[in-house]
Specification:
alpha+beta, two-stranded antiparallel sheet, 14% strand
Amino acid sequence: MNRIVFSWRATTAGLVAGLLLAANASADEACGLCAKEVVINSELASCFLDQYDQIAKTGNTAVVVDLSSCTSRGVVEPLPSPGKAQVAPDVQFIVSRTQLDCLKKKLETPGIVLDPSATIELDSCG
């Protein structure tokens, strides 16, 4: 009796191959895995801007942004505004090269309000 056994390595290799194919899609095509918006706060924004040059060196068309090392532990989060639901910031997301530059540009906008969190639209840069 033949059994089909899925190994962890084969599954992982398949997922990685799929992500690479998606990441290597032509620049004209929309990135199917890329975020349309990012929820971010001032702490993560500052960390993103500090790490921007390093992040920008990775990937060709799709860039994985991992800000999980930026979050501080033991700090009390600000209270949400009355009548406004608080959305948890995104610490990991995938963006295109254009969206990465757009996010940087928007986060550098003077007077931007990021706390308790702000939703940044990534397809609205021009």
